[in-house]
Amino acid sequence: MDFGLVYDRQVRHLFIGYNVTANEMDSHHYDLLASEARLASLVAIAKGDVPAEHWFSLDRPLTRTAGGVALLSWGGTMFEYLMPPLLVHSQPGTLLAESQRAAVLEQMAAGERQGLPWGVSESGFAAFDADHNYQYRAFGVQGLGHKRGLDEDRVVAPYATALALPLFPSSAVQNLKRLRDLGMLGSYGFYEAIDFTPSRLPEGREHAIVHSHMSHHQGMILAAIDNLLCDDALVRRFEANTRVQAESLLLQERLPGRPPTEEPRSSALPVERPRSERPVALLPWRPDPSGARPSVHLLGNGRLASRVTDAGSGGLSWRDHAITRVVPDGTLDDTGLWIYVRDRETADTWSVGRQPTGGGDDDVVFHAHMVELHRRQHGVSIRTDIAVGAADDIEVRRITVVNE
């Protein structure tokens, strides 16, 4: 499969899918790192179908839960966090591993608050369509998800508990026994789900069992049991692939030391308040070249900060200490970290940004996480990418030179 078909190069995210009948892409994207789709992202990067920058463009909002700091997902479902670990190992202390652990503990806490078994994810529930088939949708825990109204339904899926077997085997087994005692174990394994939502239950009933089996949910149960009993057999086989090994560093991202967190959305509708500030642009934007003052972009991780103007000037600072000399004079804009290119035959010399040599054609693109400087002069095209590490105090400048 070529994942390049569903890659949106403008926003660097994967489309949710392609509609063959309508002959068009879905209008939405998978834009969060806490998503089951990150496994597709990893495979696509390993195959070379999409660039590695796609991984770093995935959003990483953090929240505090009963189990610690965790990445926020869209639906607060168990499989958004724990489906990829069926094939990919998460080392303790990394952003993904800590989020997975915290997500399970938050799911446990949510079940305890409601006095119910834990384990909430996408599943069938106790409602039927016109053809008498069980309906299906995502259910999650509000403390983990952006989506509103997650705490209005109480649907527990056994496969969501099984996914946690490799992380919390004793707790998961006890929860599965609890589901078994509620009548959830049939001739072909656990039933799809058990619905505790009062509005869907007959009078006098405390729950309704969804008497169906879905192959992909049964498959996740079997895969999780396999990994638990056979020392992560599926993970070892998947990671034996050399292309996957080449991208293993993507999974080593550490949890920030003092991470900024945000609250998950509540079920209530938001109160509209007038905005007093311009919102931060998440999509790439180009600064106005006709402005009287330089446009400045600030990149940083809370400790190391890189100030870059649309002319390529600026400076580095670390914990309020200047690393490079900076004179913040908007009329001159002539101090910065200069990188030059020289033609050894003609002795022509020019800079990768507009400053300090000037001349040539240039273009600048600001992203939330990086700056692109484009320069074309003397028949040579130069692109400079500038970014600051999220976990380490380093600035990276990658220069691509094309002889035209």
Report on the structure:
- The chain is α+β, with helices and mostly antiparallel strands and 404 residues long.
- It has helices at 38-47, 53-57, 78-82, 95-114, 158-162, 169-181, 215-229, 233-239, 242-246, and strands at 7-8, 13-15, 18-19, 24-25, 29-30, 62-65, 68-71, 123-128, 134-137, 155-156, 185-186, 189-190, 193-195, 208-210, 296-300, 304-309, 314-318, 321-322, 340-342, 349-351, 361-366, 370-377, 380-388, 395-403.
Beta strands, count: 24
| Uncertain residue ranges | 268-273, 275-281
Q: Please give the count of helices.
A: 9
Please give the radius of gyration in angstroms: 25 Å
Main traits of this protein?
404 residues, alpha+beta, four-stranded antiparallel β-sheet, 9 helices, 21% helix, 24% strand
Give the topology, please.
Blueprint lengths: L6 E2 L4 E3 L2 E2 L4 E2 L3 E2 L7 H10 L5 H5 L4 E4 L2 E4 L6 H5 L12 H20 L8 E6 L5 E4 L17 E2 L1 H5 L6 H13 L3 E2 L2 E2 L2 E3 L12 E3 L4 H15 L3 H7 L2 H5 L49 E5 L3 E6 L4 E5 L2 E2 L17 E3 L6 E3 L9 E6 L3 E8 L2 E9 L6 E9 L1
Antiparallel strand pairs: 1-2, 2-5, 3-4, 6-7, 8-9, 10-13, 11-12, 13-14, 15-16, 16-17, 17-18, 19-20, 21-22, 22-23, 23-24
Can you summarize this structure?
With 404 residues, this protein is an alpha+beta fold.
